[in-house]
Amino acid sequence: MASFFRRLLSVRKPKKVLTRKDSITGRNHTFEVPYLSRLDGNQLQTGQSLIARGYITGNEGFIVNLTSGPNVELDEEETGQLDDRLLALRVDLAKGKVFLNACINGQWGKEAFVKQSYKEGDEFDIRVRCFEQHFEIYVEHKLIANFKHYVPMSNISHIYVTGDVRLYAVSWEGKLYNMPYTADIPGNFYVGRKLFVSAIADKKPKDFSIDFFAEGDIPFQLCASFVQKKVLRSSEISGTKSTPETNFEGKIKFPLKPKRSFDILIYAADDKFLIFINDVLYCTFEHRAPAAKIERLQINGDIQLIGVHIK
Q1: Are 159 and 246 within one domain?
Q2: Radius of gyration of the chain (CA)
Q3: Which intervals hold domain Galectin (predicted)?
Q4: Residue 28 in contact with residue 168, Cβ under 8 Å?
Q5: pTM for the whole thing?
Q6: What is the band of 74 on the pLDDT scale with cuts at 50, 70, 90?
Q7: Neighbours of 58 (CB within 10 A)
C-alpha cells in the first residue's frame, strides 16, 4: 500500500494541568474498556470529529480503531479475518510513540508514528476529524498527521477502544459549520444548563466570541483575543456595555493556541457563569440578567467550529 501521510509533526508534552472532575465536566464518571459502539445515523458527514478522552491505567498502552464492522477481536480458538480497520491508532507507552496504520481485507499498510510521551495516570485527548479524502488526527489538541483513506469513510460503522485506559467520553461531534453560527436555545439557558463548544483555532487567529442574547440585551459575551492573549468577559444591558473582565484562575494566562483544537464549557450556576477551557476552570462571570432569559447564542471569529450542543 502507498504511503498515506502528508505530514507528520512531533508532539511536545504539554504543561500538566488538573481537569475538574465533577458532574459539570462529566469527568467524575468513567467507563471501562473494551469499548465498542456503532455509529448513529446512516454514515459520517464531512467535518465530523471523533473525540476520545480518558486516562491511562497501566503500561501496556491502548488502541483506538475505526472499523467497518463489529468483528474487532478473535478468541484464541477462532480463525478468520477481522473487519477492516480504516484507521488503527496505537499508543505505545514504552516506546513513547503513537503508531498509525490501516488494515483492509487483511492487509496492513506501512506503519508510521509520531513521538508522544505518556505514562500511567496521564489523561489523554485524541481526536479524528473526517474529510472525503483523509482524516486529520489530533493528539493533545495538536494536529499530528493527515491520514489518507484507503477506502471511503462511509465504510466506517464502529469505534473500538481497548487497552490500559478508562474513558471519560467517546463522542462524534458536528459537521462543517458556516460562520457566524447562530442558534436559538430551546427552553432558554436557565440555571443548571451547559453549553459545549469544540473548535480549532485558525493558523493566524485574531479572536473569536460567544454571545448570549436575551431579547435586545447581551447578558454575557466571551471574547478570546489571540492578539492580547486574554479571555475577556462583558455584557451589554439596555445599551450600556460593561467593562471587560480579564482575570483568570490557575497559572496559565491564555491556554488557547493557533491551529490547536480546544473545548469550551459554559455552565450557568446560581449567581454566575463558570467557564472551563479543556475541562479546566478558567474564569467566571457574574449574572447581569437572569440566565433563564437567555434565548439565543452566536459564535463567530477565527475558528473552525467542530461541535456545539446544550444540555
Answers
A1: no
A2: 21
A3: 36-173, 181-311
A4: no
A5: 0.90
A6: confident
A7: 12
In sequence order, which residues have a C-beta less than 8 Å from that of residue 296 and are 6 or more positions away? Answer: 182, 183, 184, 185, 212, 213
How many CB atoms neighbour CB 80 within 10 A? Answer: 7
Which CATH number goes with the domain that contains 63? Answer: 2.60.120.200
Q: For residue range 161-192, what is the model confidence (pLDDT) as tens digits? A: 999 999 999 998 888 999 999 999 999 999 99
Q: How far apart are CA 266 and CA 189, in angstroms?
A: 10
Q: Per the domain annotation, does 53 fall within a domain? A: yes
Judge whether 13 lies within some domain: no
Q: Which of 4-13, 122-131, 135-144, 204-213 has the lowest mean pLDDT?
A: 4-13
**Residue 62 resides in a domain:** yes
What is the number of domains present in the chain? 2
Q: What does the pLDDT look like over 136-152, one tens digit per residue?
A: 999 999 999 999 988 88
Say if residue 298 is in the same domain as residue 157.
Answer: no
Whole-number Å distance between alpha carbons of 210 and 193: 16
Residue 78: pLDDT band with limits 50, 70, 90: low
Pair 70, 97: CB distance under 8 Å: no
Question: Exposure pattern of 68-78 as b/e (b: 16+ CB <10 Å)?
Answer: beeebeeeeee
How far from 152 is each of 66, 72, 85, 143, 280, CA to CA, in Å?
A: 12, 19, 12, 22, 37
- Number of other CB atoms surrounding residue 101 within 10 Å: 19
The whole-angstrom separation of Cα 270 and Cα 287 is 9
- Residue 300, class by beta-carbon neighbours within 10 Å (0-12 exposed, 13-18 middle, 19+ buried)? middle
Helix, strand, or coil here: 83? coil
Q: Considering 141, 173, 205, which residue would you say is the last residue of a domain?
A: 173
Per DSSP, the three-state class of 291 is helix
